[in-house]
Amino acid sequence: MTSAEPASAPSPYSDAAQRDVANHLGMWTLIATEILFFGGLFLAYCVYRGAYPAAFSAGSHRLDFWSGTVNTAVLLTSSLFMALGDAMIRVGRRRGLQVCVTLTAGLGVLFLAIKFSEYREMYAEHLVPGIRYGAAGPPQMQLFLFLYFVMTALHAVHMLVGIGLLGWLLTLNRRGRLSRDRRAPVSMVGLYWHFVDCVWVFLYPLLYLIPR
Amino acid sequence: MPPLNPPAPPSRGYLSDGTTVASWLCTRDHKRIALLYLFTITFFFLIGASAAALMRWELTRPNGDLMTSDTYNRLFTLHGVVMVWFFLIPSIPAVLGNFVLPLAIGARDVAFPRLNLASWYIFVCGGLIALYAIVVGGVDTGWTFYTPYSSTYSNSNVMVMATGIFVAGFSSIATGLNFIVTVHKLRAPGLTWFRLPLFVWAIYATSIILVLATPVLAITLALMALERGFGVGIFDPKLGGDPLLFQHLFWFYSHPAVYIMILPGMGVVSELVSCFSRKKIFGYKVMAFSILSIAGLGFLVWGHHMFVSSQSVYAGVVFSLLSFLVSVPSAIKVFNWIATLHRGSITFGTPLLYALGFLALFTIGGLTGIFLATLAVDVHLHDTYFVIAHFHYIMVGGGVMAYMGGIHYWWPKISGRMFPEGWARFSAVTIFVGFNLTFFPQFLLGYLGMPRRYHIYPAEFQTLNVISSAGAAVLAVGYLVPLCYLTWSFFHGKDAGPNPWNATGLEWQTPSPPPSHNFEQTPVVTRPPYDYPPL
Amino acid sequence: MKANASQWAQLLVVYGALMGLLALTAGASFLPGGWWSTPVALAIATAKAFLIFYFFMRLRGQSGLVRIFAVAGFFWLAILLVLTSADYLTRLWAV
Asked: Does B311 contact C83 at a Cβ distance shorter than 8 Å?
């Protein structure tokens, strides 16, 4: 975006403000795409939960409520630091940005660690459809657990991408390539990070909080 | 026509700005990326067309003795997958859209030039994976990948092919995203929304479909692959899954995908009809809104592919009704094109011949679509050759005719050279005749009850099948001739000059081929579109 | 600088609200469930998402165009869910 362009490839923009709005529109378009990417899974969830409420409830109670809840708190906190980092760079505080982004990424890693330990425990309990499955309970519970794994794994992949992007921000910032006037990467990565957080905000009640 | 051998002009705009392979493969110029797409999809078109040729060859005889059923299954799947995802979807948007859109709005490039190049590389990756799937034996599920056959029973390379399509989908999304932002943010000063050429409107509406529908296809294919790999039951009734859920997800993408193929064609035809009748488009605003409403309504009708699938009949009624609604804006467009031609000063140049072909074929395709949208009639016609004929009239008779028309119309801009008009008219007429000869008999075959995807059929269907196959041979000639003379004219054609058609539109106000940066000065727009002098 | 301090304060308030909503939805799940449980949980999730979109993602200061883009994805998701339910809710047989 900001690297030196060869002279033969001038920027298509006439000024920085135009580029800024274009970046935002592009990112929001990507988010709309992502909503529908996850949307297919939400549709499958709705259809099968409608068909097999008891099996879904049983499946939900095989998940670790506290892992899910703590992870939600972890992600919401990471989003706060991301937003604070954005506020920092808006007033040119590059050190502050560095601290905030590091914390955001750290919390992201913590989230993934908790997620991974959840996966490992479920593997031990034979709750992984298609790989290691032998749970007692309604047969359609497998559908719930499959959706649980696909939805959370797809979310986790997005988290991994997000953590990579945060690392990129840290590198840019260390090299002095971010400032009050050059903060588009921070805004863009921030939008992505918050969106991935939002997906989890819906996954949490749908997967962990199905009443008996 | 003898080659004129003009003295080679010193500069051929963007074409002479770097001639090494690297200057093409690392380019961020939307015009060069358009040409990269042009070569790629032409290659895929030839593969898909060869599969069709083999199928038509087999169908000249009722006994199915030229190839095994399994080979035939793989051929029609290959034809469908390649033509839909690797030719039609990228055809007008990625080639003509990439080339013309920034020029038509007076921009220097698309909003994200690097993303644009990346989208071509992603497309090539997807294409190579799909080619690999074909080379190692192909797929026998049909292009629709219906579960549970694809997820449980098929013994062909479903996973590889699905991966190829999955990857290519991200290229669609990147292109769509790029165009949406480009149209919003990079229009020249004075170029308000209602001064945009209809081609730009059409590409914009198509881009919306690309970014909102394609992700659903991606997740659908992923679910199908997971079911196939792990047998988790998401589409398997034995474990409580519903195979129909796959169809809902698949058609939520694939019905709008039909509009990805036809809407850009409508945009191209609007340009051609207006230019070659020297009149402004009749009912411009209505045309713009009907493009948007077709794009919107296109998302509400997918259930009409599932009338006989054990979907709820009540849902069927709703989907049937919504499908009828699409015919309203479509008919408005056809009437407005005809009204534009009415009392115009018409020259029957090659692009217009294609546009007129589009009008005739799209109308037939659209009207037969109403038969199929009718719940009760569809029970008789579902999965017969009637459906095949219908969607080929839309996608080939509409989409490919418009694509060919657009390629000819903008060829002088792309190459800076004129194509030989005589040959071009000959091939336009050949394509029209060959197309009708191929596909009209299929309406009859389908109505008489010949199902799609079978290569053994009762002997009484042979005559119509032979006519159809003969038509396919004519059609093949019609497609091969332009390939030859366009290639020839790229190097040896007569110099085109900036505006050979005397067309309005910003792309004609810059030299042909345009310089890398498109315009010497950013144009300022003060007039409505299609501002032809009064007749 | 003062404007900036109030901005940070605002982000912290939003964060407090998000954590409060999380406590609410987690706590509600310990109550005996009923038909209302899922709608309430989803309403809380929607409220959280709204706060994130509006404040953290700064939709507050954005133009109408960007806001339309932000809503479009949800609108199309609604199309997918509603029209598919038109099938599943009116079938005369179970899935």
From this structure: no
